[in-house]
Amino acid sequence: MNSTPYSSHRFCVAPMMDWTDRHCRYFLRLFSAHTLLYTEMVTTGALIHGDTRRFLSFNPGEQPLALQLGGCDPKDLAHCARLGEEAGYQEINLNAGCPSDRVQRGRIGACLMAEPELVAECMAAMQNAVTIPVTIKCRIGIDDHDSLEFLERFVDTVRQAGTRCFIIHARIAILEGLSPKENREIPPLNYERVFAIKERFPDLEVVINGGIQTLEQASELLMKVDGVMVGRQAYQHPALLAAVDQTLFGSSTMAYSESEVLERFEDYVRAELSRGTPLKHMTRHILGLFQGQPGAKLFRRYLSENAHKPDAGIETLVEAHNFIRNRRPDPAPQNQIQEATC
């Protein structure tokens, strides 16, 4: 096993179901060369019994890129880790943090934290199967197991199997009674518990996830841990990534503006359209651009109303971009119009 990371975990974008597909990842990569990106979770069953090539496909321009796997069978995970390495991924990550009912039924995600010995066996099997790093993403606890002692035991058990990098979402997961969305918001953040893990196991690479909104906040957290992982904030406000390379990696390369990123993304869209990819599959990921700028609402509205049409092509995206280029003022919200006429 090669325990030396190919890519830095200093700043990462989280794996997010239905969001971080290959089009989203390519788009986010245009903002930052150094951010480590993760796929959506792919289950072992999908890879073994489904369309393996489709599930593992990515554009080389997305690198550095990690594959997140969901599963609980060591042999299946080892097999899928090998497939991921052969496909060109730079890291394999095990999902031990997702709280949804659907994945729990498959003994996947956060429920695995109740079985640290099984998780250790899974991690060891994958590490023995590949030469790239194998990491884990977990929570600080689950249900009634809400203590530093529980998390320490989990980390220690998995660490003894050879795992060197733990990505920890700083909230517990409530496996019954809360939806996945509620599990991202209701359980309180507890950064101190993650900091304690780094202090208790200084030889481990500890990456913190949950509630990170700004690069200033990320910089402060990096004084206590080795890396930060941002989720929804990076997706909904992609311009957050524009200064990552300069702020967190010391790059001297000038950051691209949002408009410059979109112009570069248009080249990607043209290529994908020529392969038959519907425009809506790509433009749904860029609606967070230009927030607060003149024309931003018109940009989003135009794409929302037109990108799904069967004949939508690159002209649709270009026309939406023109609302920004021409700086057309946004219409007032409907409630403001009503108030003004009352």
The CATH topology of the largest domain is given as: TIM Barrel
Number of helices: 17
- Within CATH, the superfamily of the largest domain carries the name Aldolase class I
Number of domains: 2
Helix content: 40-55%
Describe the structure.
This protein has 342 residues and is α/β, with parallel strands linked by helices. 43% of the residues lie in helices and 14% in strands. It is built from 17 helices and nine strands. It has an eight-stranded parallel β-barrel with strand order 1-2-4-5-6-7-8-9, surrounded by four helices. Helix 6 runs parallel beside helix 7 and helix 15 runs antiparallel to helix 16. It is globular. The N terminus and C terminus are likely disordered.
